[in-house]
Amino acid sequence: MEWKKVVEQMFPAGHEVRQQGDLLLGEGRCGNQTVAVIGTTNHTEVGVELALEMAAAVLAVMRDHPARPIAFLVDTSGQRLRHRDEMLGLNGYMAHLAKCVEMARRRGHAIISLVYEQALSGGFLANGMMADVCAALPGAEIRVMGLAAMARVTRISEERLTELSISSPVFAPGANNYLKMGGLDALWEGDLSACLTKALEHVDATDHRSVRGLERGGRLLADAVTQRVLSSV
User: Would the pTM of this model clear 0.85, i.e. be above it?
Assistant: First the structure.
């Protein structure tokens, strides 16, 4: 779905979200709250420059609007896989963005993330997987690695991986499978403004992903392993 339609549905009371290249910036009104909006579009890759721009936007919200909720709108094809960005230390820039998001959370900013188009690999970590509430539209595409690439890395045939993906969401892309694994809190359907309002009312910074993955049948061992590790500490 085009970002403008998503924003209009999330903020029917009005918004001032604008596009700057592949970056989305602005704010919108949801009920009696004003929400800062930071996002990406055009299936963009997150490189050095975009990571810095997003981090600067988070810092600006902390400076100018203490405790204001932040909504990330996610549409990315992952981190930029270029020699230049790797030599500049893209991992450090991504870590800087992640640290800014965590600092915002610690200063009382609720972090909401919505995948409205696609979210791939490292481009989804800091602005998606770190959110207090991570949601997606039903038709969103979410994956870490395609089955063809997974076959090359694991040396398991793509045909076999395709078979496994039928019964195990770990091998399969798509928002529904990430919901089963606990990677998503919810799929947002219908009234996006109501979904956002509900998310803001039930923000919980505790990581429940392994528990939800077990409850939903998508990750059966993650929580058990976590508990064994914790009990041995």
Answer: yes
First to last CA, the chain: 46
State how far the Cα of 104 lies from the Cα of 137, in Å rounded to an integer: 25
Element (H, E) at 187: strand 186-187
Task: Specify the amino acid at residue 95.
Answer: A
Non-local CB neighbours of 155 within 8 Å, separated by 6+ positions: none
**How many Cα atoms occupy the beta-carbon half-sphere of 148 within 13 Å?**
0
Provide the b/e sequence for 29-59 (b: ≥16 CB within 10 Å).
bbeeebbbbbbbbeebbbbbebbebbbebbe
pLDDT per 10-residue tile (average), the chain, 233 residues: 94 96 96 95 94 97 97 92 91 94 96 94 84 94 81 90 83 84 92 96 87 89 90 82
Kindly state the DSSP code that residue 122 receives in the 8-state scheme.
G
Q: In whole angstroms, what is the distance from residue 102 CA to residue 123 CA?
A: 16
d(CA 133, CA 130): 9
What's the rounded Cα separation, in Å, for the pair 108 and 115? Answer: 23
Residue type, 63: R
Distance CA 80, CA 93 (A): 12
Tokens (6 digits) for 121: 């690999």
Distance CA 168, CA 161 (A): 10
Residues 47 and 79 sit within 8 Å (Cβ to Cβ): yes
pLDDT tens sequence across 31-87 = 889 999 999 999 999 999 999 999 999 999 999 999 999 999 999 988 888 899 999
